[in-house]
Amino acid sequence: MEIVVFGAGSLGSLVGGVLARAHEVTLVGRPDHVDALRSDGLRVTGQLEAHVTPSATTDGRDLAAELAVVTVKAADTPTAADALATGTFDAALSLQNGMGNEAILADALESPVLAGTATYGALRREPGVVDCTGLGEVVVGPRDDSHSPLATRVGNAFQEAGLETTVADDIPRRLWEKLAVNAAINPVTALADADNGAILDPPAADVAHAAARETARVARGAGISLTDEAAVGAVSQVARDTAANTSSMRQDVRAGRRTEIDAINGYVVDRAEELGLAVPTNRVLASLIRTWERSNELR
Ligand SMILES: NC(=O)C1=CN([C@@H]2O[C@H](COP(=O)(O)OP(=O)(O)OC[C@H]3O[C@@H](n4cnc5c(N)ncnc54)[C@H](OP(=O)(O)O)[C@@H]3O)[C@@H](O)[C@H]2O)C=CC1
Ligand SMILES: CC(C)(CO)C(=O)C(=O)O
């Protein structure tokens, strides 16, 4: 399959690098990484290993492929969507965290947009090198509760390259479950400057589980069948599977970059307000991360 991966940072380089074992991949990224990819190829290290030579470009406009996989941070989705809209694709797939990315892509693109989640841990260590810090799973499916042959084709292509992939017909519930995982793990590990494994024990577990339970309550208010137990269970499972991982929000804080707080805990707070539900833990976590962003002039 011809695949463009838009956003060759941590997750995009990992997914693109593994996909390049079986497919024709083009990575869209920043100049230092793209230069390294062009001269020495891409090294995937850690829990998955590969040395591959995908195409690489800094210009995401006017590209053509069967599939565009979007792996930029949530705040960059509108720019990615505008660039991808100048190209030709049979389908696009977001593997981003947070809510709202697929809707932005669907508004901009003519091709069908699939939704997805990824629980692999990824860390781009230096230009040309990405570390797989935790084995996980990719889930892909249509944005509504339906079955899609397109999603099956994409899932088969991912599986063929060696990415553990599930094709789902209940994506809305899975997106909310992943939202609960990220609302629990990302801000807590970022604020505590701790690995994901810290979420397995109190006191971090108490805060994280409260955030996950609140997210499940909001999901149920929005008509999604997600129990508190399923949400907390998913948080514990991901924390165990990615115990040594630096969450993407902790990576952002460490690098002095704006985080995805608006699309994660901020989204939970906004939906809770619409539904008249109280989500004090998500509110505090969002406020603290936003305060950090403000004091670093990132918002
Ligand atoms: N890292 C992880 O382990 C996981 C991450 N995720 C999710 O995946 C998504 C990506 O996260 P992550 O990989 O950590 O983020 P990164 O910031 O490492 O990667 C995004 C990359 O895209 C680049 N980029 C943004 N816009 C453009 C553009 N217009 N042209 C070229 N390059 C561009 C960024 O460059 P620059 O920084 O210069 O803007 C950056 O290098 C997020 O939604 C995250 O929550 C999900 C599961 C695991
Ligand atoms: C699955 C998890 C928590 C892995 O770290 C992630 O999605 C992230 O870091 O954003």
Automatic annotation (TrEMBL):
GO molecular function list: 2-dehydropantoate 2-reductase activity; NADP binding
Catalytic activity, as annotated: (R)-pantoate + NADP(+) = 2-dehydropantoate + NADPH + H(+); (R)-pantoate + NAD(+) = 2-dehydropantoate + NADH + H(+)
Domain Ketopantoate reductase N-terminal: 3-143
E.C. no: 1.1.1.169
InterPro entries noted in UniProt: 6-PGluconate_DH-like_C_sf, 6PGD_dom2, ApbA, Ketopantoate_reductase, KPA_reductase, KPR_N, NAD(P)-bd_dom_sf
Pathway info: Cofactor biosynthesis; coenzyme A biosynthesis
UniProt similarity note: Belongs to the ketopantoate reductase family.
Name the UniProt record assigns to this protein: 2-dehydropantoate 2-reductase
Species in which this protein is naturally found: Natrarchaeobaculum aegyptiacum
